[in-house]
Amino acid sequence: MGDAVKPQSAPQAPAAPALDAAPALLQQVRRTVDTRIGAGRHGLGPLLDDLGQTLARLLPGPGDTRLSPEEQQQARAAIAGTLDTLEDVLEAFHRSGRAGNVMGWGER
Q1: 62 vs 56, 73, 107, CA distance in Å?
Q2: Of the candidates 49, 26, 29, the residue with the CA atom closest to the CA atom of residue 37
Q3: Which of 5, 22, 36, 41 has the fewest CB atoms within 10 Å, i.e. the most exposed one?
Q4: pLDDT for 52-102, tens place per residue?
Q5: What's the whole-model pTM score?
Q6: How far apart are the first and last CA of the chain?
Q7: Pick from 33, 46, 58: nearest CA to 82
Q8: Alpha-carbon distance 95 to 82, whole Å?
């Protein structure tokens, strides 16, 4: 028997959280933003609302219509774009110091 080279499988992506975890995670993000940013959070409302609406479309409840695969891909892209924008805004708040008590946002 020769030394056969086994093809290596692609790295596995981490398991996605349960479908009901997404709304809870969004609520946790909202609470963290409220706590860390205070008055400046009001400008983030539309971003967080958009994120919530897109998550609701992507993860429908029982009996709700599921998106087609193409629509799911578009929704995922929209979520990624919204999260990128949210990250940029939070980083700008952190860098500018206008957000009040933001210690810890970028620290590890």
Answers
A1: 12, 21, 40
A2: 29
A3: 5
A4: 888 888 888 788 888 999 999 999 999 999 999 988 988 887 777 754 554
A5: 0.61
A6: 51
A7: 46
A8: 20
**Token pair of 37, please?**
């940013």
The rounded distance, in Å, linking the Cα atoms of 19 and 38 is 29
CA angle 30, 32, 34 (to 5 degrees): 70
The residue whose two tokens read 């692609």 is 10
Name the 3-class secondary structure at 73.
helix
Q: Provide the token pair at 30.
A: 């909202």
SS3 for 10-43 is CCCCCCCCCCCHHHHHHHHHHHHHHHHHHHHHHH
